[in-house]
Structures are given as C-alpha cells and as structure tokens.
Amino acid sequence: MNVFIVGVGLIGGSFAKDIKRLRPECKIYGIDTNVSHLREALDLGIIDVESSYDDLGVADMVIVSIPVDVMVTELPKILDAVNDDCVVFDGGSTKSLICKTLDSHPKRRNYLAAHPIAGTEHSGPSAAIENLYVGKTNIICEIEKTAFKLQEKALELFQQIGMRIRYMNPDAHDKHIAYVSHLSHISSFMLGKTVIDKEKNERDIFDMAGSGFESTVRLAKSSPAMWTPIFKQNKDNVVETLTEYIQNLQEFKQLLEKGDYTGIFNEMNDTNKIKEILNGIPLNKK
Amino acid sequence: MNVFIVGVGLIGGSFAKDIKRLRPECKIYGIDTNVSHLREALDLGIIDVESSYDDLGVADMVIVSIPVDVMVTELPKILDAVNDDCVVFDGGSTKSLICKTLDSHPKRRNYLAAHPIAGTEHSGPSAAIENLYVGKTNIICEIEKTAFKLQEKALELFQQIGMRIRYMNPDAHDKHIAYVSHLSHISSFMLGKTVIDKEKNERDIFDMAGSGFESTVRLAKSSPAMWTPIFKQNKDNVVETLTEYIQNLQEFKQLLEKGDYTGIFNEMNDTNKIKEILNGIPLNKK
C-alpha cells in the first residue's frame, strides 16, 4: 500500500511511524513545503521517499496534517490528483470550513473528515512519536459523505493504531472543541504572557515555579503557525468561550475583593468534580 | 531523633516518608485534628505513633504542614511547647502573615519559615510520596531570625532529601509566588468551571478532551480547604495578578474580534519563550 503523508510534522509523522511498524509492507511518501522538514523526516526514517503532488495518482491513502488555513486550499488539489480507490483524511483541529469547502467537490466521497485528539506541545518531524494515538479519540465528521469502502480503509487503520472513534457533525465539533481544546491553549498562552511580562527582569523568579505552573503553562509552547489559523477559522466559538472564561475570572476576582471566602471555597469545591469527569477520559485510564 | 509531623497530608507525609527511609533511627510522631487521617497515616506506616501537643517537649524537629490560616494560630502554640534545641519549620504557601505573626514570639529563633515548592493536586496521607522533594526548590524566609544551629539542622535535612535552597524576604515571596503558583491555580479552576458549566448536560463531550485540556485543568482538582486561606492571606497580590491576566485575555479577545491575526500570532510567538524559561527550572531537567 502506498501511503502519502502531506505535512511530515508531529501528527503526520506519528501516523507514519505507527504505519511503518504495523504494516511494514507499506511505502511511505512524504510531501512538505518545508524542505528541511522533509529531509529530516527521511533521515529519521519516518518516510521512505520524498515526493510531490505529481505522484499522488499512485496513492492508496493520503494523510493530510498541515495548518487548517492551508488545508482549505490544498485538500481540493489533493482530491483532484488521487485515484478513485484512494482515501484522503486530515487531522485538522477545525472541521466546519473544511467540510463546507469540500462539500461540492467531485471527489468528496474520497475524503474523510477526521480530528485525532492527540499531540504534544512540540512540532516538526522530530516531535513524531510511536503510539501517540493509542487510546485517543478520533472525531469523524460527515461519515456518510465518504464512500463506504474508503470509510472501511481508514477505520481499519484507526482501529489498528488503537484509536476510539466518535461521530459528530462539523459545527458541533467546532463548538465543543473550542471549550475543551482551543480555550485551554489561550488560557495557557496568556498565563505565560502575564508571568513573563511581570518577571522579565527577574528570570531567577522562575526558580520558584513548580510543576503546577509547568503543567498549566505547557500549551504556551505550542506552534503559533498552527494555532493562529485554528483561532481564525473557529473565531466565533473561541470568542464565546473567552467571554465566558473572562466572566468567570472576573467573578472570582470580585469574590476575593469582597472577602467572600465562602464563595471562593464553593467555586473551587464545585469545580473539583472535574476529577470524576477527567477520570472518565479513557486516556487517563492507562 | 524525634520528628513530629503536624498535618499528616501530602506535604508532611512526604517529608515523613523520606525521613524514615534516609534516617531509620528517627521516630515519627503524627499530630492531626483529622482523626481518620491520623489513623490512615499510621496504617500506611507514614508515622510511628499518634501524638498530641502534650508530647512536643521531646521533639527535635517539628514539620508543620496545615492550611495557612490554621498555621497562624497553631505555630505560636507549637513554639510555646517545644524545647530550646528543637527546630520548627512549616510548608505554607504564604509567608508574610506567618512571619509577621511570629516576629515577636519569645521562641522565634526556633522557627524556620519555609515553602517547599512541591506537591501534586492530590491531598491527604495517601497522597504522600517518596522523593517528592528531589530537585525541588525550598524558599526560606528570614533565615537570620533562626538560631544558627537550628538552621543547620533543617538545612541538613533539606539537602539530604535533595532540595535546592533559595532565600527571599516574606513580602517578595508572596508577591512572586502569586504569579508562578497562585494565578495558575485560579486560571485552572476557572477553566474547569467554564467547561463544566457549558457542557454539564453533555458529559460525553469530555470524550473530546485530550491531554492538553487535562494538563491545563489539572490544578482544578486541588483542595479548596487548602487554597481558600492561601488566597485570603495573599489577597492583594492575587488580585493584582488576576487583573493583569484578565487584561491580557481581553486584549487577545479583541485582537480576535478585530481579525488581527498577525497580532495573535505575535502574542503567541512572544510567549513561546516560556520554553527556554521552563527549561531553566531544574525540576524539568530530570
């Protein structure tokens, strides 16, 4: 089987590593506009050969993991170039605009809209890791628009690499993911900014930072090139989550200013139930 | 050596575990108003014997790890009860009020004000773990007010369990810790609240949550009984950090509303330097 990875970074590269291990007969073709990333992916053995859209005609499967703004311009071209038995799926963190863009594409049946909820704060081919997807959720949108045999081809891979599948419509995906992913990133970036601004002349203050600060600010290491287009495409939902988050912070601040410590205790106590909720996330059961 | 642990939870219990391992000749006495915690600490082998303030006269070292509001009322009583060669140190997350309260205590020289920057989001004796303190920073305030021999006694222990020592005055401690610890907790609690409020009727939405959400919201599992008095004692500094954090979030939201994506990219890009800063935190070098 010929598998093409378009965008050989953390997400695409991790798919490639699992496929190479689980299906050694597969040949992995890499495509990337970043020439040094492509070379690095080859040197690391993540891909077998550097390739281009000209070769897409021989593809059995194409995995597209590029920033979501580029996704919108590139997925139509990729679909144009593949054969009828090829399945193309993406790993974009937004789904509405991508699905809308491809809705009337003549090869819409070759496309499967996916969002594997997995990753780290690192990026590039060197960030790719084996078993990244074990136990993680893969959200699939508009499954009914993908040809049945091509659904099967993609789902077999997802199952083999250990993912759980959830089906959702693109608008619901974008709305909910704004809360459980996009907002976390902004809260973390702005926490990092607040502390850096305050402590810029006192770097040794970070000696005081413990693992609590570290985990809360971890996502502030994420790639701006990847996240800017995500926030752009999901602007309305993200603005809504930010409005609610800021409102909650202001209320907490007012409780503190008023000296309402019973109120502060209750706010935290009510939120403690996140423990049980997080225990329900399968990735935490490992 | 007779070591007393007042408050046999995560912090006190973890000290006890390391002391038992490294200094098997020590006898560990436990004191706690929570009778079931005290029994649990005994059953888990964290302490050797249940005790009370009546026994404090035989103590060589007292480690006080209780909520910071109780610290203010209990530390004077503990100092009253110990002998002249006993060192008493605490693990409170605030230092100003505690130091001020003890400033004129006749046994001030027996007290060492400490804040070991270590912990997890869990609490109680069962949360105590060995080697919690390896490579972590211990902030010590007003070292000059502790008797020299008693400084030595405490510092020997900190060194033996692998801590790095930093000296700071209590007001500076409380100001900076508001940024690198207290604010992280509030941002995490309010993130948890925002998402729970929105998704309360759709629990399966948390299936969509990945490790990014999990790490950002981890601190929202923390104990409200411990954190409410911390925020109360450090109110002014915490209100200041919250004001700046909310301001940064509002500015980010405005950039998004205006569609200034270059501005959004730059905000994130500038904050990416948190990578290098965090790499400077020794606990990450493990």
TrEMBL record, chains A, B:
Keyword field contains Oxidoreductase: yes
Which Pfam families does its entry note? PDH_C (PF20463), PDH_N (PF02153)
Give the superkingdom in one word: Bacteria
Q: Does the keyword Oxidoreductase apply?
A: yes
- Alphabetical keyword list: Oxidoreductase
InterPro entries (alphabetical)? 6-PGluconate_DH-like_C_sf (IPR008927), NAD(P)-bd_dom_sf (IPR036291), PDH_C (IPR046825), PDH_N (IPR046826), Preph/Arog_dehydrog (IPR050812), Prephen_DH (IPR003099)
- MF annotations from Gene Ontology: NAD+ binding; prephenate dehydrogenase (NAD+) activity; prephenate dehydrogenase (NADP+) activity
Gene Ontology biological process terms from the UniProt entry: tyrosine biosynthetic process
* Record domain Prephenate/arogenate dehydrogenase: where: 1-286
The enzyme class is oxidoreductase
Might you give the EC number(s) for this enzyme?
1.3.1.12
Which residues are listed as membrane-spanning? Answer: none
Q: Which PANTHER family match?
A: PREPHENATE DEHYDROGENASE (PTHR21363), PREPHENATE DEHYDROGENASE [NADP(+)] (PTHR21363:SF0)
The protein's matches in NCBIfam families, at most eight in alphabetical order, are given as: PRK08507.1
Protein's UniProt name? Prephenate dehydrogenase
Q: Which species is this record about?
A: Zobellia galactanivorans (strain DSM 12802 / CCUG 47099 / CIP 106680 / NCIMB 13871 / Dsij)
